[in-house]
Amino acid sequence: MNTRFTLPQSAIPTRWYNLLSDLPEPLPPPLHPGTRQPVGLQDMTAIFPENLVMQEMSADRWIEIPEPVRDIYALWRPTPLLRATRLEQKLQTPAHIYYKYEGVSPAGSHKPNTAVAQAYYNKVAGTKRLATETGAGQWGSSLALACQLFGLECRVYMVRVSFDQKPYRKFMMQSWGASVYPSPSDQTDYGRKLLKEDPDCPDSLGIAISEAIEDTVKSKNTKYSLGSVLNHVCLHQTVIGQEAIQQMEQAAEEPDIVIGCVGGGSNFAGMAFPFIRRKIVEKKPYRIVAVEPSVCASLTKGELRYDFGDTAQMTPLLCMHTLGHDFIPPRIHAGGLRYHGMAPLVSHVYKLGLIDAVAYPQSKVFEAALLFAQTEGIIPAPEPSHAVRAVIDEAIQAREENRKKVILFNLCGHGMLDLASYEAYRAGDLKDD
Ligand SMILES: *Cc1c(COP(=O)(O)O)cnc(C)c1O
After folding, report:
1. If we measure between CA atoms, which residue out of 67, 415, 84, 408 comes closest to residue 270?
2. Same domain, 213 and 323
3. 100, 120, 302, 400: which could join 298 in a potential S-S bond, CB 3.0 to 4.6 Å?
4. What is the CATH number of the domain that holds 204?
5. 105 Cβ contact partners less than 8 Å away, ≥ 6 residues apart
């Protein structure tokens, strides 16, 4: 039986899919915090290049992927789709489980899909230097790689808990030529203020974003780059779902359920949006599920309202599911899911009932991740391990109901640099808050 579905290089998508074009109800626009009017091009070009701002606001259904971006995608794309037959057997489930594996990129996650595109558009626009934040280090390492490939300088503000506990991602970023600072840092006014008030002050993605934006507006030839949340980031990730659709056709199956983990929402969007298009346009009955950590559950516990994307209130107001811009999530091991908000597009399709959401505590998540590693071999990153938990629960339910169902999920990164988290779990040191 064929269990591994690959595509030739020529099958790398030539266009990104823009869900904005097919929404049954328009997305509420980002607002200027002062005037509460929709932000203009001018507001946005203070931190982003104009070509990316245009993309952020575009309602074109398909957006051409530039040739230099596709050339770099070809280093690891198309990524494989696999059927998890050993996990199915272990669970004794009639469900068929498929996963799209984004861990084959040089940085080990889906994030280079947008990092490469953003570095390219900045290069074309004349940017010399990019500033950004990173949680667990996956975004920082992806942008460091992309900047290296396009000859841009890269400055990364890394959430301190990861800077200290996950030094290998820092070493990756430095190997690709980036400079990395623990956030809160002594490099910005905001960081210095926080450190002065409390040298042991809490850290968060929201704080690191504020530092990166401050760096951008105060430095020459510098733009800011965000690894999730925004429309253009979700857009760039849609190569995942487009490839998966081709590969499910190879497997001669249609998913009943599509699952992905959500931090800011981009890997989920990348897998789900092309399927949501079919749900809207072709009335396909897919159930599409976003999985989040229960201690930072913006969809299932947050509220849908306008909020800032960062702690220092420097970003435009985004209409999104949020726990509040000053919410400091507990230091769970899935650092990439420690974000107070959710992509406006993902929040919107949740409101429209096009997707569902569930939340899990990290002990249940690591239990599932180990079962996956022991049956399928790949050690998943803690973030997609949330998706693995939901997949296993769906498969167990299929067994109990004795009903075949086809489950597809996005295994958006490997956990080879997160092994300390696995060790903490095995040693029984991993607590649920
Ligand atoms: C960054 C990251 C996430 C969370 O970000 P999203 O934008 O929600 O995808 C999840 N998984 C991995 C492997 C990541 O690197």
Report:
1. 408
2. no
3. 302
4. 3.40.50.1100
5. 75, 76, 79, 111, 112, 113, 142
Please report which residue ranges of 176-204 form alpha helices under DSSP H.
Answer: 189-197
Which residues lie closer than 8 Å to 84 by C-beta, 6 or more apart? 97, 98, 99, 372, 375, 376
Instruction: Extract the runs of DSSP E, i.e. beta strands, from 316-405.
Output: 317-322, 356-360
Cis, peptide link before residue 274, omega less than 30° from 0: no
Run means of pLDDT, 10 residues per run, the chain, 433 residues? 96 98 97 94 94 97 98 98 98 98 98 98 98 94 98 96 89 98 96 94 88 97 97 98 98 98 98 98 98 97 96 93 93 88 98 98 97 98 98 98 98 96 93 78
Contact 206/311 with Cβ under 8 angstroms?
yes
The answer to whether 321 and 302 are in contact (CB under 8 A) is yes
Q: How far is CA 156 from CA 147, 216, 392, 424, in A?
A: 12, 11, 36, 27
pLDDT at position 64 is: 98
Name the residue of 110, 113, 162 to mutate for ligand 1: max ligand atoms within 8 A of Cβ. Answer: 110
Task: List the domain range (segments joined by +) for residue 52.
Answer: 17-65+111-231
User: Is the C-beta atom of 228 inside 6 A of ligand 1?
Assistant: yes
Q: Is the CB of 233 under 6 A from ligand 1?
A: no
Ligand 1 atom closest to residue 138's alpha carbon, by position in its atom list: 15
Residue 63's pLDDT is 98
Å from CA of 403 to ligand 1 middle: 31
Structural domains counted in the chain: 2
> Residue 330 falls within a domain, yes or no?
yes
Q: What is the pLDDT of residue 235?
A: 98
For the CA of 381, the closest atom of ligand 1 is 13
CA distance 315 to 210: 8
pTM of the predicted protein model: 0.97
Atom number in ligand 1 closest to CA 135: 1
Residues in the chain: 433
Q: Mark whether 417 and 296 lie in a shared domain.
A: yes
Residue whose CA lies nearest to ligand 1 atom number 3: 336
